[in-house]
Amino acid sequence: MTSGHSTSLAGEITVRKALASDVPHIQRLISPYVERRILLGKDNVTLYGSIQQFQIALDPEGTPIGCGALNVFWDDLAEVRTLALDADWIHHGVGHKLLDGLERDALDLGVGRIFCLTFEVDFFTKHGYLEIGESVVSPEVYAELVRSSDEGVAEFLDLARVKPNTLGNTRMLKVLSRG
């Protein structure tokens, strides 16, 4: 894909905590991925209610060009979710900056492991994520998590009711280092 942006602009990309006023931008960024069934769609009310989980990447002019969220599941486990980029900015370091910011958030919250459910295996592998199959939580924690109404938690647990949403996705996990 060709875009009018040079990779040297990656250094000028900034990542910040999302604001409530960013919800329309998040919807714009995730919409193409929802249409292609890569991401689950989210209602505005859900996005506003979870805006504190999001980070936004801005181009040099201050236009939102990427987003991503960190959702804490348990005391040592969180999920990267809703990671989406403007198509013109793919392969320019924006996703890497967003993921690095989300991982810093996880460390700041005392979370040591991050899960993702993704089609972008190579991208996450470059960041130290490994494919997983079996559950990575104890049976006691599983019993607690299964009570959650959050679809992301259901996907993490690989519950049958979310199987149509997860077909083709790869479950990956990264153990964060505090160094």
UniProtKB/TrEMBL annotation:
Q: Which CDD domains match?
A: NAT_SF
- Return the InterPro entries for the record: Acyl_CoA_acyltransferase, GNAT_dom, NSI-like
Residues covered by the N-acetyltransferase domain: 13-160
Q: Which UniProt keywords apply?
A: Acyltransferase, Transferase
Which Pfam family would be a valid example here?
Acetyltransf_1
Tell whether Transferase is among the UniProt keywords. Answer: yes
Fetch the Gene3D superfamilies from UniProt.
Answer: 3.40.630.30
The family database entries (PANTHER family) matched by this protein are listed as: ACYL-COA N-ACYLTRANSFERASE (PTHR43626), GCN5-RELATED N-ACETYLTRANSFERASE 2, CHLOROPLASTIC (PTHR43626:SF4)
**What name is this protein filed under?**
N-acetylglutamate synthase
Which organism is this protein's natural source? Frondihabitans sucicola
- Lineage, top ranks: Bacteria, Bacillati, Actinomycetota, Actinomycetes, Micrococcales
